[in-house]
Queue: 4 jobs
Job 1
Amino acid sequence: MSRFIVSGGNKLSGSATVQGAKNSILPVLSAALLCEGENVLFNCPRLSDVSAAARILRYLGCEVKREGSAVLVNSESVNGAEIPDSLMREMRGSIIFLGSLLGRRKKAVLTFPGGCELGPRPIDLHLKALKSLGVKIRESRGAIECTAPDGLKGAKIALSFPSVGATENIILAAVTAQGTTTLTNAAREPEIADLCEMLNKAGARIYGAGEGVVVIDGVKSLKAVEHTVIPDRIVAATIMSAAAVTGSELMLEGVIQSHLNAVTSVFEDSGCDIKFDCGNLLIKAPERLKPLPVVRTMPYPGFPTDAQAVMMSAACAADGASVFVENIFEDRFKHVSELTRMGADIKVENRVAVVNGVKKLYGAEVRARDLRGAAALVTAALAAEGETTIDGICYLDRGYEDFELVLGSLGADIKRI
Ligand code: EPZ
């Protein structure tokens, strides 16, 4: 189990290029199952979740190889329709293969994705929607057997919650269904628009991606494509938090301004100066942040739940009290106990966390228990006095490519052991 050792207190400087988006490449890799031939996916980050997705694609009969920052997926001969539990358990997000497998093979047998560090991860919205597309679902002993003997048929679907994964699975199942599917209350995350751009290049007919209503006219088949994945807005938010906690000025290269509006406005309210300049973001943080405005996590374009933990690190040493309300996941404050070990003053009541800014954080032995919590501990350690050892860096490697190298190149004193 790798760990980081961070000696805090350094000012950071310079610029970092933001990696491709984990939550975009995962559904795009799933969509490659539908695009028969050799797909070339550019700006694909080196992440353990991407390796897990590649193992699933290979198991299903695809050829997957990496050439630099591109991943090539040849889905000419997909012959499987079953994903074994061992592969499903490697990555929570593997449920995203359900829709594309049904679209390509009209069948999918996989196990319920395990609950994870964020609490139970139900898939009721996915299954209810797929049933309305004509999928028969049998559940037994933790496995789900989905079949569409007469093929998938377009339908009108209204999601009770704009679930990102459910929206993606519905689109992946509907693109080659017979007839039109209208999806209302769809998730609007930029990663969904990215997935639909890739599918439309392959010959799909999807309208309104990124909006609340998405219309999908089913087509017979899709062809292989080349696609460049959007930058990771959560990694960008994490590097911004690193600047904020250390009172530094940093340049982030390759960001999309509109994807960061909710995050940028919180950093600006806390006293950071942020400028955008043709695809680059310049953040200049004050010596000490002002208290943050109330941070309520919401579906996009609201404040992203994935940035809650790293924003909380920035609040720990701010001047005054900051309030966080986690509206998306039941249990997404696991980083609080570890930040407290570093001297943070945080009170949690159900979905609300109140952070009273302290003068200083201190190095400690801490342990990450989820991906974004790990990122929060790393950013807090950059500001802490003394040395912090962070266990559980395998969680960080799920979503951050070579993060100690990125931070080291900005002047952080950080080692992986
Ligand atoms: C995606 O997860 C992301 N993962 C998550 O990022 C992100 O936090 C989340 O969207 C919200 O933005 C990937 O894209 C791989 P949801 P997903 O379905 O699709 C409930 C990270 O750190 N729900 O929008 O699982 C669910 O329990 C990860 O990169 C149901 O009740 O999120 C949760 O409370 C973490 N029934 C809420 O909806 C369902 O059928 C949001 O879930 C589905 C979801």
Note: The pocket of EPZ is lined by residues 22-23, 26, 93, 121-126, 161, 163-166, 187, 305-306, 328-329, 371-372, 399 (CB under 6 Å).
Job 2
Amino acid sequence: MDMNVFIQTIPKAELHLHIEGTLEPETLFRMSERNGISIKYDSVDALRQAYRFDNLQSFLDIYYEGAGVLQNETDFYELTWEYLLKAKAQNIRHVEIFFDPQTHTERGIAFETVINGIFNALSEGSRDLNISFCLIMCFLRHLPESDAMETLSQALDFKDKITGVGLDSSEAGHPPSKFKRVFEKARKQGFLTVAHAGEEGPPEYIWEALQDLKVQRIDHGVRALEDKSLIKELKNRRIPLTVCPLSNIKLCVFKTIREHNFKKLFDQGLCVTVNSDDPAYFGGYVVENYLALQNAFQLTRDDIAQIAVNSFNAAFISQDKKDMFIDQIKKFAAE
Ligand code: HPA
Ligand code: ZN
């Protein structure tokens, strides 16, 4: 079997995906017209041209602007459904989806509009596309902790639909410790926890995510390699990293894919996973991220299978479900 086909068809989980980051320019235009929301760009091409970023913040500015076309439940439903169809074509069998309620509630969109649209699509995807899922609600770290507290209290009405809470948006200057109390409250309510850390921010932010927020997983975490004792901690505690290679290149965390430290993290024996982050903005979904790494580092089929196994081991699913998926990978890879 050709390597491209192998990567395409091996069962995979995606664990780091912002649903607002799957808004393709075509969909963005369609919704802007339908909802009468004007945007700065004249065409899909002009919009795509604007997707050149110098760092995380230059991306976030465009990403939050784009999210402005999402107005009603149907918009959130269609956004999610379109992503699920792409995931299906890449044989993604389980997704853990981030959503940013504050991006929408700040614009006067009700929390329930957002979550119902996303959740209904995910439920349908689980039934009709055989893609299992969970939802992770992220707090925007550039806003005060009090806003996150308010968002958490709104989420309590939808507790059965939300598995975990996370932390995203502008990292520099907004350390995880700023959100210690809201994460503590979330944990008491039974939410699992993750946080973006060590994407642009220093290794200390990863330590804070572990110690202050008591996260089960680190999103990105690539700067962990700067701290030997941190690598030891991540290894000993089997804390997974959800790495997003194409995102890191687009946001200039690394200059080129060959300079990415994925292979170093992988060779350390860490539980690293490969994800797409904001695929509509970064030029690729999960398969394109696997392919970029395979090309750059000449990864073998065993390496690819190990990355796919990691994706299920790192997922918020039962051990039985993990075993089932991993068994499928083993059988697939042995063919
Ligand atoms: N980092 C931080 N916040 C984000 C990202 C990211 O990569 N994508 C969407 N929000
Ligand atoms: Zn992210």
Note: Strands lie at 12-18, 92-99, 132-140, 164-168, 192-197, 217-220, 241-243, 272-274.
Job 3
Amino acid sequence: MNIILFGPPGVGKGTQGIRLSEKFFIVHLAMGDLLRAAVKEKTELGVQAKSYMDAGKLVPDLLVMGMIEERITASDASNGFLLDGFPRNVAQATALNQMLTEHALNIDHVIFMEAEESCLIERLSGRLICKGCGFGFHRHYSPPKNDGLCDRCGSELYQREDDREDVIEQRLQVYLKETQPLLEFYSDVDVFSKVNAMKSMDDVFHALEKTVQG
Ligand code: AMP
């Protein structure tokens, strides 16, 4: 099963993407995580991507396209994949369609997660991410059981550089201009659905699960 999960920054794609991919035994491909790993390893791509990411801008399409093609065709994705944070604009979505055709792959669900801007800002500014497994927590709404440590794997939690208030603002602007048009792009696709993400983490998960199970 192949899924595209999209929506604004802070809507919970990462958290729900991890849970969904575990539930349906598919690989979770978060473009932001792949890029952060490349930055950390200082690969050529990571060095080029860093300044865009720090500024809350999209990394150029050419850099991300190769990465995604490699991952969706890798052996660990043979049971399926969940794309989180890709595509992020119409050019990427168009290129993805072409790539899927070339590799005889289909998308089973395109799911848009929606939430109001005030909710996104609150979520992003209090967000803590696990350095080990990438799972997300929130200082107030879903704090870890042990301060600063992940409930799932025990690794240290950190605040992302781009979860600063000025960068959050820029990321939301980029979302409106670049990513929101995907709603129209996918609106007439018969596997498209919307999920209200302004509920508790478990309620949102159950709504997503229901959508996927049909
Ligand atoms: P995320 O972890 O999804 O919030 O992504 C963090 C940052 O990585 C974004 O603000 C962009 O700079 C970059 N990024 C993630 N996905 C993409 C993409 N599909 N295209 C271009 N840049 C991306």
Note: The chain has a mean pLDDT of 96.
Job 4
Amino acid sequence: MSDRTEFRRLLLTGAAGGLGKVLRAGLKPLTRTLRVSDKAELGPAGPEEEVVPCDLADKAAVHSLVAGVDAVVHFGGVSVETHFEPILQSNIVGLFNMYEAVRKHGVRRVVFASSNHVTGFYRQSEKIDVDAPVRPDGLYGVSKCFGENLSRFYYDRYAIETVCLRIGSSFPAVKDRRMLATFLSYNDLVELVHRSLLTPRVGHSIIFGASDNAVKWWDNAKAAHIGFAPRDSSDPQRERVEAACPPLDPSDPAGVYQGGAFVRAGPFDD
Ligand code: NAI
Ligand code: 15L
């Protein structure tokens, strides 16, 4: 992990969330000031921090939020499959507000928390790379496809660089058999975000976020320029997880597709 202070001011959205809390600590070495934002409670500002509450769906608030930052680490938004309305407001309207603010304020780079659920309808027996057509496994996955496409447009039209991180499952520990393939340790997450911020030229890049797990569904060869080399692995947790979690019934789609239980969520708008 780098300990260089490269940025004057970085913005972290979603800072009250599970990964936001990890990055709130993990981004400090890279920046003189870390501006943290969320619509949920963020607590008091720590040293060299600015706390700026903001609902991403509020255009004016997002435009103020982005003023004066060098780069954005955008982790705010709905993070699970649910009804369309909250996804629409946070992940679609909210992301558009963010990119418009980034454009207007001349910010040059965004790190966007995409998700493995943009390709959740590939089978667990398949290995894919970033050129595989998207196969979202729900409305949440569709909203992350929107984010990947919106950021592509802002790069082609305005040369704003984005790294889209198709994060697997980033939690303190492996919770089930699927996560033996999708696990991204917190240390590897922080390293991935550091690489996404520090690599000199990223253009519009998409990279899968997984640790060096023995079972691999994703090939990151086309994102080698990011220089991400995960150090952790789910493997030391395999024995515990296999003992605790019996295999799923072979006919259960959650055990067939990469998106796991997300593929059987919904419908939500009946
Ligand atoms: P989380 O749900 O714990 O955190 C998301 C944060 O975004 C929350 O604090 C929430 O208050 C905030 N938020 C939601 N809507 C907002 C809005 N309209 N305005 C302002 N803030 C809003 O989720 P987690 O696990 O920390 O994930 C962070 C990001 O990474 C999310 O974008 C998620 O989709 C993505 N991701 C996470 C994965 C994981 O394994 N944890 C896997 C793949 C993607
Ligand atoms: C995600 O995109 C979610 O944000 C996270 O909560 C997990 O469900 C993760 O994917 C996963 O696939 O395990």
Note: Residues 7-264 form a domain with the Rossmann fold fold (CATH 3.40.50.720).
